[in-house]
Design brief:
By secondary structure, the chain is mostly helical. The chain has helices at 2-13, 20-38, 40-46, 56-89, 94-97, 100-125, 143-148, 155-190, 194-221, 229-251, 254-289. Helix 2 packs antiparallel against helix 4, helix 4 (56-89) packs antiparallel against helix 9 (194-221) and helix 6 packs antiparallel against helix 8.
């Protein structure tokens, strides 16, 4: 959370980073902060409790935010791929196409799709019948395990939920892969050494996409209802991926590292200035006291 918040603060405070790419990166970091704060606090608190319980409403709320934020991040990664396509393949038209209004509209579309994706699944499961206390062998609520607790035949419902999440996961992942291939092919046609440069530019984004979509696709397209692998993938999705995103984007990006140095320089100069002012203030108080 600290790493992602640092990226957001750096981009907001540095005018050199006020561009469409960093606008989208700041929103990705903001979403990753949300991903980290949905299930992780409950998981940490359960580590220190014998009786690990979550209410029905708490479980529903957790699933709602997990899929809203997750759906929005999937679409946002697609938007970021489109941003790189315009920047690499149509550099002269980039400022016009990726204007602030366009970026804001695409961001609104991402959140809207995430909200619809989450509500559509909750509409199927919120009224399921449950028979008393139930045990869920996982540290956070998700639809596959939640549905299995119902006191009714859930085969069709499991298929609908898997199809919904699997469709958005596989659909956006396929669009991203096609866009990367299209970018590399287009650049290679125009420049002999352009493909390696484009690949270097896209490598960080491809790494983030693989980290994010890998667990989602395995859980929803190829589910393991009886094996503990889904818990490992859940930890990977809600902890490792948000942790890796700031590392990947900052350590491979010279502009971000320079901006962070400028931000830390401003903080240090402000502290020195405040320290000097406090010394003067104490000296004045001493003189007045004498």
């Amino acid at each position: 959370m600290l790493g992602n918040l640092l990226i957001v603060l750096t981009i907001l405070s540095d005018h050199h980073l006020h561009s469409p790419m960093y606008f989208l990166l700041a929103n990705l970091s903001f979403i990753d902060t949300g991903v980290s704060s949905i299930a992780t606090p409950k998981m940490i608190s359960d580590l220190f409790r014998r009786h690990k319980v979550i209410s029905f409403r708490g479980c529903i709320t957790q699933m709602f935010f997990i899929h809203t934020v997750g759906g929005a991040e999937m679409v946002l990664l697609t938007v970021m791929a489109y941003d790189r396509y315009v920047a690499i393949c149509k550099p002269l038209h980039y400022p016009t196409i990726m204007s602030l209004r366009m970026c804001t509209s695409l961001l609104a579309v991402a959140w809207t799709i995430g909200l619809i994706h989450s509500v559509a699944q909750l509409a199927f499961v919120v009224n399921l019948p449950f028979c008393g206390p139930n045990e869920m062998d996982s540290f956070y609520c998700d639809f596959p395990r939640f549905i299995k607790l119902a006191c009714t035949d859930t085969y069709r419902l499991e298929f609908l939920v898997t199809a919904n999440s699997g469709f958005i996961s596989m659909g956006t992942f396929f669009i991203l892969i096609v866009s990367y291939i299209f970018i590399l092919v287009t650049v290679r046609k125009h420049s002999s050494g352009g493909s390696s440069k484009a690949l270097s530019t896209l490598s960080a984004h491809i790494t983030v996409v693989v980290f994010f979509f890998g667990p989602c696709i395995i859980v929803y397209v190829w589910p393991f209802p009886t094996l503990p692998i889904d818990k490992f993938l859940a930890i990977f999705d809600v902890l490792i991926t948000p942790f890796m995103n700031p590392i990947i984007y900052t350590l491979r990006n010279k502009e971000m590292k320079m901006a962070m140095r400028r931000l830390f320089g401003k903080v240090l100069s402000f502290r020195k200035c405040s320290h000097a002012q406090s010394k003067k203030f104490r000296l004045i108080l001493t003189l007045l006291g004498n």
